[in-house]
Amino acid sequence: MKIAIYPGSFDPVTNGHVDIIQRGRHLFDRIIVAVLLNPGKKVLFSIEERLDMLKESLKGMDGVEVDAFTGLLIDYAEQKNAKAILRGMRAVSDFEYEFQMALMNRRLNRNIQTVFLMTGMRWIYTSSSIIKEAATFGGDISGMVPLIVEKKLTEKIGYSPNHGKSKE
Ligand code: PNS
Question: Is the pTM of this model over 0.70?
Answer without folding.
Answer: yes
